[in-house]
Amino acid sequence: MISPQRTEVTRIVMGSGEKDEPLLSGRIVYIVDDDPSVRNALTRYLAVMGMDVMGFDSAEEFLAQLAGLPAGLLIVDMQLPGICGLQLIREMARAGIHWPTVVISGSHEGHEDEVALEVGPDRYLRKPFDAEALLRALHFAGIEE
Amino acid sequence: MGGHTNSDLSTRSRHLRSWLIQASVVFIAYYLAGKLGQASAERSSNLGPLWPAYGIALAALLRLGNRMIPVVAASAFLVASQSPVPIVAAAGQALSTTFAAFCGSYLLRRLSFDCSFARLRDSVAFVTVGAFLSPVISASLGTAVLYLAGIEPYSHIMRAWLVYWMGDGTGVLLATPLALSVSNFRSQIGLKRLPEYVALNVLLLLPCFAIFVDSGLTEVGRDSLTFSVLPFIMWAAIRFGVLGTALSTILVATVATVATAHGEGPFAHNETFTNAALLDVFYAVLSVTGIMLAALIAERTRAEEQRDELFRAQAASQAREEAEKDAALLRDKLAHLGRVDMLNALSGTLAHEINQPLAAIRLNTETAIFFLAKQPVPVDELGAVLGDIREDGKRAGDVLKQARALLKKEATSHQDVDLNSAVQDVARLLQFSASRKGIQLDIVLGSPAKPISGDHVQIQQVVMNLLMNACEAVEKREPSLRHVRLTTSFPGHAAIVAVTDTGPEISEEAMGHLFEPFYTTKQGGMGLGLAICRSIVHAHKGTLTAIRNPNGGITFSAEFPLAGSAASENIESGQQVHINS
Predict the structure, then answer these.
(1) Quick one: A24-144 is in which CATH superfamily?
(2) What is the ipTM of this complex?
(3) Pick among A16, A33, A45, A104 to test the B interface (most B CBs inside 10 A)
(4) How confident is the model at residue B563 (pLDDT cuts 50, 70, 90)?
(5) Which among A13, A49, A106 has the least Cβ separation from residue B355?
(6) Which residues of B touch A60 (CB under 8 A)?
(7) Are B359 and A40 in contact (CB < 8 Å)?
(8) Could you give the CA distance from residue B488 to residue B403 in angstroms, rounded to a whole number?
(9) CA angle, corner A22, sides to A17 and A26, nearest 5?
(10) B435 contacts A35? CB cut-off 8 A
(11) Of the partner residues A44, A81, A129, the one whose CB lies closest to the CB of residue B359
(12) Residue B158: burial class (beta carbons within 10 Å; 0-12, 13-18, 19+)
């Protein structure tokens, strides 16, 4: 689950430029997604981008370890078996934890748009999304914090 | 064998009774015909110019078989013994008549003669063998008997033979067709056409009188009028068959014989022997013409009927084929509609299933590009990333392939279908949406002996429909009750896929409507799913049933015959659409 490998980022090839780099580099990002392909791709990409990444395959597992985790950014999938992404965010809010969060979703059947409003439209990404858009969303989320 | 049962006895007594009846009829008919022949016979030798009794004997053996031989012999002996010939000669005459009739009937049967004169070959065989050949035997034996008995002197032997032969021959030509076809009265003449037949015979009497009765009107050329009766005989043959022509010929023969006996008509000019010979020729011409024509007509009528029957059967089978084709087309269209409907409901799931690998591919691509820019390029890491991209690309492609298979709009094809693999494909497609809704989906597969013969897509459609219905039935239940179980089993020559859900209790009434089209409890559903499923299963010669589970929910079972089993033969693409069954 945990992918602690950390890659030093010397250069960011994304067009959004150097400003993102100091903000995101070295930060911890938690990924909650039940799909192993997506989770692994996200983990690897963000690690390559210089972040510390931890992946979880369910909301339940993440919540179980939450108390012992240092604060960080959260990427959560909407469609999770059991507790869904939205419930997870509400659960954390109830516990007083307000980490910058980006919501991703592979299904777009209407009620996902409510979520977009709840977390902010610039932090809601539809799969498949641009890697750049993900970085930007993480960036904005980080700034707001 | 321990003796006869009651039914044996009753069968025997029935046979005896029918033989007695037939024997009496034959005996009396022969006797009367014999008396009629004797009326015109030379008193001394029991030889007449017309001997219808021989015709009766031949008809009896042809129609009723050799068991009539003793009857014919007895009756012939009785008739002969009532003539002036000695008793030994009478016995000889009776035996020669019976033997000749036996030979005639045997030969005719060998030539597969049909007593209904339905074919020209029947008439030809009858005239040649029955009327010309078999009297050669009776005449030869009979004349020999008369000679040996001293009744016919040697000087008259040829003449006696001729009279014998001609009498028996015309007897056959006149009496046998009547005796053989009198039971066909209803089909050949019938009450409805009886007036026409009576009119024919009344008209026939006109030339008869003109020929045979001296009215003083037509003194000249009466002889040449003789054959003016022929058109009437032909009329009878064309319209009233063998029976009609036989009766009319007998009518003419009666008039001619009586007139000639009274010295009237064209056959009364010469000495008795010549008169008799000319009369016989006259009868023979009328009779042979009539019988041949009647047989030709019967043959043509039968051919026409067969042709019409063939046309009708062809038209009917063509119409049936077209109706079956239409029905098959309709069922395929409906099935396709059902799949489109199902995929509509699944579109969210499909999009999700494709978006997941696509998302991974895009992220991995960026990672790969990043690796490529590094010095030196981390080849192992790059290889791993590209491997993942390949896997995800394949995964997205598989989802699309499955969806496309369901959307195929082809007509039903019949190939070997593995029920288990069909179930697995469908389950893969549905697993995600099931787990997302917190539904526990259990798949238990049996091991099949043989595949099903049928349409892969349509069988998948049935499985998918049943699974989707089951998921819908449980998705609103409390989490511990969201359970769907699919099993496949293969007992005997069948393949069964059963889907059990733990949905809410269903009323008896709702159960009754389950398979009705447009009956639905869902919003937005067309209510065609189960109706289409049932029609698909029926088209595969299978059954689709639903039973209520004791603890709520329904179990649907689709049973298909295995390929090669009797029930799977003839799976028709053109079966009725069983939407309403």
Answers:
(1) Response regulator (3.40.50.2300)
(2) 0.84
(3) A45
(4) confident
(5) A106
(6) none
(7) no
(8) 23
(9) 125
(10) no
(11) A129
(12) exposed
Strand B494-501 versus strand B483-489 pairing type = antiparallel
Residue B493 contacts residue B565 (beta carbons within 8 Å):
yes
Q: Using an 8 Å Cβ cutoff, are B207 and B147 in contact?
A: no
CB contact under 8 A, B392 and A37: yes
Domain with residues B318-568, CATH architecture: 2-Layer Sandwich (3.30)
Nearest 10 degrees: Cα torsion B37, B41, B46, B47: -90
Task: Count other C-beta atoms under 10 Å from residue A11's C-beta.
Answer: 10
Closest C-alpha among B272, B72, B45, B51 to residue B168: B51
d(CA B483, CA B438): 9
B16, amino acid identity: L
Whether B367 and A37 lie within 8 Å, measured CB to CB: no
Contact of B368 with B305, CB cutoff 8 Å: no
Contact B363 A41 (CB under 8 A): yes
Q: What are phi and psi of B376, to 5 degrees?
A: -75, 160
| Residue extents of the structural domains in chain B | 14-179, 318-568
Q: What is the DSSP letter of A70?
A: P
Residue among A35, A45, A109 minimizing CB distance to B367:
A45
Residue closest to B335 by CA, chosen among B495, B213, B464? B464
- Spell out the alpha helix ranges (H) of B475-558: 508-513, 529-539
Closest CA to B12 of B28, B3, B390, B97: B3
Confidence band of B519 (pLDDT split at 50, 70, 90): low
Question: Which residue has tokens 């030809």?
Answer: B124
Pairing of strands B483-489, A73-77: unpaired
pLDDT of residue B480: 85
Q: How many residues does chain B have?
A: 581
Residue B96 has pLDDT above 90, yes or no: yes
CATH class given for the domain over B14-179: mainly alpha
Task: Please give the Cα distance from B436 to A81 (Å, whole number).
Answer: 5
Distance in angstroms (rounded) separating the CA atoms of residues B536 and B222: 85
CA B5 to chain centre: 37
Among A13, A49, A128, the residue with its CB nearest the CB of B359 is A128
pLDDT digits (tens, 9 = 90+) for A105-134: 887 766 666 776 777 777 888 888 988 889
pTM for the model: 0.56
- The verdict on a CB contact (< 8 Å) between A45 and B348 is no
Strand partners, B544: B558
Q: What is residue B4's predicted lDDT score, i.e. its pLDDT?
A: 53
Do the domains B318-568 and B14-179 match in fold?
no
Query: What six digits make up the tokens of B233?
Result: 């005989």
Would an 8 Å CB–CB cutoff place B127 in contact with chain A?
no
The rounded distance, in Å, linking the Cα atoms of B77 and B94 is 5
Running DSSP on this structure, what letter comes out for residue A95? T
Q: Which residues of A touch B (CB under 8 A)?
A: 11, 13, 35, 37-38, 40-42, 44-45, 48-49, 79, 81-82, 104, 106-109, 126-131, 134
Max CA distance (Å), chain B: 145
